[in-house]
């Protein structure tokens, strides 16, 4: 076999390992699903009526707010899952098993690739559950099958980017506790964007930040795909952000993984 | 060991140096390990043993020196080295969320063994290491000894010709320790080369063909266990007498003995062999000198360190820095 074939085989082996971890540690997955679901129910049933009234275009009711809110909640699921990735990478690094992998003639990238693919599976699982609950409580998207597929693509792209970022954060953390805290800013970012309320209701400085931070175009793209609102340049912006974050995080993670070896 | 294999080194190291920041951890190490033998690196905590293993097993780059492991240059062909070695570290390198069987399966997959071959080796190792009972339980419920056995079994899935064992019995109870020794002896019988680090002299004595004593990043002495023990003055017999008269009578009979009047003890240098012990007792018996109590003191790590560095192992460890690992 060629070295590329080995890299693929080893990555698949590591992915199987991560899937087993997800199965053996269901409380983590439950927590990753629970957070966005709680937030969804909280915002729809507690704040929904009021926030819905403030939506542009004469305002709406709780149902209208649910439609507005959901893309942000999906993104929130991704950031939560990314936090899980950082924790599981840090856990791996504190145990001897990664050192064992490093003394074996296996593809260097496979360990990290396994984590990324495993987390991607976990994230998409979380999103599916959250989406199911949203549909059950009255989320009514207008998306065609193509638009659904495109939404899935956008979610996968931002998940891929944030997971690589979390892998890097997990690698630079000295402890599992640090790894669990470092990605916290990711869970805050949707709040400082267009996830929960339109940005034009915010004060100028905050609004500027909200308009230009990476999560807003991702949310606006999904909103456009699912509900038929205008997408404009958001799609290009969103995908560019994803590509840049993925690339930089990948390089950072690779460097940290090598450096971690030299301790 | 066969003479034919004695010419091929499994490991050869010359001028190895490693520093962490300002701390010199390994300071010019030269050593040679012959294929099919057990080489033991003996030293207190913090002497640099783990750093040595981490360098030889490609985990850490050396700062200087030329190193060949399993026929490959360590710096130029790390993957060649990795394909030939197995490492069982001081801290267990098992996946706690997987079962014992899944851990072994993971190793078989990473060695790219086919399904049938993987299954055959896993079954063999499960049997040999007595892991069957808990094979389908997650490793988190394993005892320390069991975890260590699984760890070693995982190392052996790839059938390495050279194995690094970094303090394989530290923290194990005596029974698990002896079980581990049996396993290591079994490997050696199959022709596997073992590089063993330990802080126990008796362990090195039990298992090793050659021992090197590491202190402050330097090898202070190297030789066979017998050579080492012969050069250590620490071994002695302690005889306790009922009164001073008996002690002094004995002291006159045994010229090499050192009497301690307060404790009523005579300390006689000895390597503990039965014939010299019998001669000693016969001589005391013939002179009708009564002995209350006898104990044999075998040299320990402290004696080795007294002999070669002038400091006990515990003090040596205090002086050395613990730069080996996190």
UniProtKB/TrEMBL annotation, chain A:
It is found in: Cell membrane; Membrane. It is a multi-pass membrane protein. The keyword Cell membrane applies. One of its GO terms (molecular function) is ABC-type transporter activity. Signal peptide: none annotated. Coiled coil: none annotated. It comes from the Bacteria. Keywords: Antibiotic resistance, Cell membrane, Membrane, Transmembrane, Transmembrane helix, Transport. PROSITE patterns: ABC_TM2. Belongs to the ABC-2 integral membrane protein family. PANTHER family: NODULATION PROTEIN J. This is Transport permease protein. It comes from Micromonospora chaiyaphumensis. The lineage of its organism: Bacteria, Bacillati, Actinomycetota, Actinomycetes, Micromonosporales.
Automatic annotation (TrEMBL), chain B:
It is found in: Cell membrane. Its main location: membrane. It comes from the Bacteria. One of its GO terms (biological process) is doxorubicin transport. Residues 11-241 form the ABC transporter domain. One of its GO terms (cellular component) is plasma membrane. SMART domains: AAA. This is ABC-2 type transport system ATP-binding protein.
